[in-house]
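Job type: complex structure
Entries:
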Amino acid sequence: MATSTQPQTGANRTTSLSNEEILRYSRHLIMPEVGMDGQLKLKNAKVLLIGTGGLGAPLGLYLAAAGVGRLGLVDFDVVDFTNLQRQVTFGSDDVGKPKTEAARARLGNLNPDIQIDTFETKLTSDNALELFKDFDVIVDGTDNFPTRYLVNDASVLLGKPNVYGSIFRFEGQATVFGMPEGPCYRCLYPEPPPPGLVPSCAEGGVLGVLPGIVGSIQAMETIKLILGAGENLVGRLLLFDALGMKFRELKLRKNPNCAMCGEHRTIHKLIDYYEFCGVRGEEAPGPDVQVPEITPRELKARLDRGDELFILDVREPHEFQICNLNGHLIPLGELPRRVHELDSSLEIVAHCRSGKRSAEAVDFLRKAGFRKIQNLRGGILAWSDDVDPRVPKY
Amino acid sequence: MSVKVMIPTPLRAYAGKRDSAEFSAATVGEALSGLTNQFRELRKHLYTEDGKLRAFVNVYLNDEDIRYLAKENTPTKDGDTISIIPSIAGGSFAR
């Protein structure tokens, strides 16, 4: 499954740079903190990037530009139009291409002297150890809990540093896990949040620059680990608040009772991380709760017949501004205290963007005694696909 | 004694969109009680049904994890900052 841009050089360490490389890296070479020794360390380094998305974009670009000799890219996704707002590796022409292929073309153009190995696959418990074993540093740029626990556990099992970054809207976190003297991800978070308590897509979204900043911090930490220079983030959790433009840091301690890296560890091999993270993790397709549904076409037909239906929109006000179906807006989070705005004698159809939040709303309202209520299957996205393409998808 | 509690982005929706709140409290536990009394919806996000802090919610007094201090009984002093740090997983938000 791996494809390389250059033939493998085997275990031979490169001990010199070409004249062209000396010119390319001259701004590194004239710094005492890097110099020829440091640049050769970078050239001999092997870094595996898990995810080539928002965090992976600055990571790939800067590590390639810096001359990291071998970069591995793991991603199973294809470039989507909505990725371009922040995944700056990709151009508009790349939409629809596998991310690993598009990233390889971009990074290979940036620096033809490095080896880029692409793995167009989902990282799983079956392939993680095999993928990780050839690399010196693992960089976690994923977007879901099951993969984060998998990356952590595989890194600890193989004794490799795991450069961690994560983002949420306008907040970021970064640290280095997996060093022998430092904590691992499970020392910090022994368990993932149950799926129901993970912030829903209602609170999702991310400011495009944020992964650029957090991914750049990860790139910097990766380079420092390779050079053995400076003070890295082992044992410190860096918190970044982009709105307040504040950096803070918290102490991270190695938990002596950690199930993964503690003295009496209980985990000795990779497990089923989707099961560990509950139900199906964050990448679960379809709603978590089973509720009565109506399809967009059925709803359209009933509205055209003149049936009296009350459309309940449970998205957020800023989403309503993007597009709406003339529904009554009560954001899901406000539903419990605004139930009185609804008449249980009317037939209600609840909808959101994709059908997930509205399924929760329907479930909640049925428990509150509403009987004539249905969920619009697939939400506004499906309405746009099946009924009215003038309604924009977002 | 006034203690500032920092509310992380994912939980602000349940805290009147506030990013912090101040309470008069002698321990970390008292400050967190003040917070969940003021914002009832926060309670289930921070505590299990039997009243224990959830395993995926980390609480720091200034820059120290309270698990390595006296947990919720950790005493606070005027001007201290308590931070609630839930796990976030975002990275690419491809979906």
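Summary: The two ends of chain B are 45 Å apart (CA to CA). Chain B touches chain A through 31 residues (CB under 8 Å).
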